[in-house]
Amino acid sequence: RQLEFALRRALERNELLVHYQPVVSADTETVLSFEALLRWNSSEHGLVNPAKFVPLAEDTRLILPIGEWVLREACAEATRWPDHTKVAVNVSGEQLLDPHFASTVVSALAMTGLPARRLEIEVTESIFLRDATTARATLEQIMGLGCSIALDDFGTGYSSLDYLRKLRFSTIKVDRSFVQGAAQKNPESLAIIRAVVAMAESLGVTTTAEGVETESELDIVKALGCTKIQGFYFGRPMPPEDARLLFSPRF
Ligand code: G
Ligand code: G
Ligand code: NA
Ligand code: MN
């Protein structure tokens, strides 16, 4: 395929970029972290949607070199932020099951000088479907380095609670579909967010409400007790220069 051929060249042609989306505290509305989100500006295909090229990168295993690049790029960028600010990097199953993944993380931290406690790795439930034992072992290695692990898109996959018992996630990210539902007073969405927040609290895990776009969505997820908020309401994924400005005093 043509897109695959172009993606093979994307790294060396410097066509890949990382954008950063703020995650704020529900209490103080200050920035706690940024999620790194990959973007591809292809010379042939223009801006390509990650929903399209990330799966292609996974199928072709190009996600391995690309993911390594994202990790280094994001860690390097985070060294410019205030010391308490984390960066969250998405990692696919292909990356996590790669035997070199842990050493990729070690070298990204070493090369950039970012302390491990400032790097969060985001995984989805789907990584546990293929080889849960290896996935868990690798995540434990990463946690051993001092990094934290977030469980992304919670509630949309298989939602086995088994890995919540076995792994110490630092954050559960409540999928945007529940946030939207809750703001529309959908009783099932409300009940599910309540249950997730209660479970997270008793496990000592924080919760991030994803995809908060409106004030009514913000109000409801705050009322439900989510600890962190991410979404267009506070900021879209933005170039690193713009993300840095969020730390500068405004006039
Ligand atoms: O950026 P956007 O909001 O459109 O993201 C679309 C999808 O691509 C999300 O599911 C996100 O997790 C995934 N994605 C974005 N950046 C990365 C990345 O650096 N690595 C991996 N593996 N997935 C990513
Ligand atoms: O799968 P993951 O949760 O990693 O993907 C994050 C995706 O959600 C990115 O594509 C990002 O651009 C998108 N996103 C983040 N905030 C919002 C939001 O408020 N509304 C919508 N529609 N999408 C969002
Ligand atoms: Na994510
Ligand atoms: Mn998500």
TrEMBL record:
Domain EAL: 1-251
Superkingdom, taxonomy of origin: Bacteria
Signal sequence coordinates: none
Protein name, as recorded: EAL domain-containing protein
Species this chain originates from: Novosphingobium aerophilum
Native organism taxonomy: Bacteria, Pseudomonadati, Pseudomonadota, Alphaproteobacteria, Sphingomonadales
